[in-house]
Amino acid sequence: MASVTSLSDSVQQHLASALSATLPEAAGADPLLRRSDRADFQANGILALAKKAKANPRELATQVVAQVAAGDVIKDVEVSGPGFLNITIADRAITENLAARYADETGRLGVPYAAHPGTTVIDYAQPNVAKEMHVGHLRSAVIGDAVVQLLEFTGENVVRRHHIGDWGTQFGMLIQYLDEHPHELDHKDAQVTGEEAMSNLDRLYKAARGKFDSDEEFKTRARRRVVDLQAGDPQTLAMWQKFVDESKIYFFSVFEKLDMEIQDPDIVGESGYNDMLADTCRMLEESGVAVRSEGALCVFFEDVKGPDGKPVPLIVQKSDGGYGYAATDLSAIRDRVFNLKASTLLYVVDARQALHFKMVFETARRAGWLNDDVKAHQLAFGTVLGKDGKPFKTRAGETVKLQDLLDEAVERATAVVREKAEKVGLTEQEITENGRYVGIGAVKYADLSTSAVRDYKFDLDQMVSLNGDTSVYLQYAYARVQSILRKAGEARPAAHPELELAPAERALGLHLDQFAETVLEVAADYEPHKLAAYLYQLASLLTTFYDQCPVLKADTAEQVENRLFLVDLTARTLHQGMALLGIRTPEKL
């Protein structure tokens, strides 16, 4: 089915035609349509046009009104203030437009594909080998997954990349420590996998780090082990591969708990670019983009200076010949642009790394790897805070493990679901399943309903509340509609454009019609919090509608069918919108 023209687009077309007829030189002008408390839409571009034409704004607005063809779409238009146009949509137009969305057999609800899709390589969910994932990994994973869903839904070709930390000094340190302290990983430890294995590795990593920081001789041996790793020494490489494999099993278990799909081919860590590092450095040096400074290969920037006023360079290769993060990131850009044919590189990375990525992107531009046709963007995100407004920690002051946090969210949510289980007739299996959906949804929504660049407070009590801007509120709204549909008996949803709509019906219908433009805008700007805001308002309008407009006890059979149609379309929109945020909507709650 073709996409459905939104009511706002239809109004734009009518106004543009009226403007052109009134003021020929205004042909193609944007009437600047926006939502209004006084009417369905308000056009406020008349003022600028009048100024340009040296005309009286209110007189020009009156002339435009005379040219507007009221009827099929526009019920009424009136001049307001100094020259605004207040526009009211016809009830029939609202219902017919929604009926077209409802009839979309593709399930897209009339949402069009993006006009010019490309290939986006998105770098997100970047855990580290041999380390347990903590609350700091949450935002990159959740935001990145939502953006992936949105981009794919709008027709973009999306390539996922999980740039895991699987190379460098820490592995020489860990392997050397385990070689010298084999008793710290007994036979039983070697047999476990998943979370327990990762917990053991994390423990060993901390012990190795302590030894590395306090023992200069061990530090020297560990660094020699890094050289062995980079040279491909079989024993060292085998131990490293075991760490990577065990870590992946753990990563997959955490992502599965987050209800996120992660495929092994999508995981391309730092080690995946080893063979490109020397060439990257050679290309940068030969082109003059990078220069040698005190033995290191550096890129300098006029606007990046330290506290002493001296330039702070991006170090691509260290003076000892080792490669830093910049070399790996620049090699990844080369791979993504020239091998994966990306038109957009998107990095969902902590805001604290903004300077690093600014310098990396600028270096890639100077090298010609990024240009007007290939762009890179950091989707920076803020910090997860505790209720006290400080970075989220355990009572002992340690970083919160992501697995523990998710388990607690599911436990709290399951308790909330169980309270209403008997009333809605849930089985024990449904209680367990819904508890998982509600708990994980609560964690995701709390993150996604906040602008990525802002910090947010992690408050599980609020997250699993049935009241306020929470995923549970939205999930409950969806489940309420399913309950209504189950109780409808022989009555079926059907649009009746001939019916006059009550104010709450109009408000709900107009908001439903905005779904397509909201999705396209959110995907284009990488702002899932705007979709969350749209869905929360939709659920709120549904609540008002439910309170003011009886569905199954409406006055006529036609009104029953029309209201069933409205609530069913609302449920479908909630379901699709939540799915784009990576959140499930249970049928009963």
Describe this structure in words.
The protein is an alpha/beta fold and 589 residues long. Among the domains are: 7-89, 2-Layer Sandwich (Gyrase A, domain 2); 168-262, no CATH class. Helices cover 52% and strands 9% of the residues. It has helices at residues 7-22, 46-53, 57-67, 91-102, 138-153, 169-180, 187-191, 194-214, 216-231, 234-257, 277-286, 325-339, 354-366, 402-424, 428-448, 460-463, 471-486, 503-512, 515-525, 528-548, 557-580; strands at residues 33-35, 41-43, 74-80, 84-89, 119-123, 157-161, 291-293, 296-299, 314-317, 344-347, 375-378, 384-385, 456-457. It has a 4-stranded antiparallel beta sheet with strand order 1-2-4-3. β5 (119-123), α5 and β6 (157-161) form a beta-alpha-beta unit. α18 packs antiparallel against α20. The longest helix is centred in the middle third of the chain and has 24 residues, at 234-257.
Radius of gyration: 29 Å
Distance between the termini: 33 Å
| Strand residue percentage | 5-15%
Oligomer: single chain
Largest sheet: spatial strand order: 1-2-4-3
Spans of 5+ residues with little confidence (pLDDT < 50)? none
Overall shape: globular
Largest beta sheet, briefly?
4 strands, antiparallel
Topology:
Blueprint (H helix, E strand, L loop, with lengths): L6 H16 L10 E3 L5 E3 L2 H8 L3 H11 L6 E7 L3 E6 L1 H12 L16 E5 L14 H16 L3 E5 L7 H12 L6 H5 L2 H21 L1 H16 L2 H24 L19 H10 L4 E3 L2 E4 L14 E4 L7 H15 L4 E4 L6 H13 L8 E4 L5 E2 L16 H23 L3 H21 L7 E2 L2 H4 L7 H16 L16 H10 L2 H11 L2 H21 L8 H24 L9
Helix pairs in contact: 1-3, 2-3, 4-18, 6-8, 6-9, 8-9, 8-10, 12-13, 14-15, 17-20, 17-21, 18-20, 18-21, 19-20, 20-21
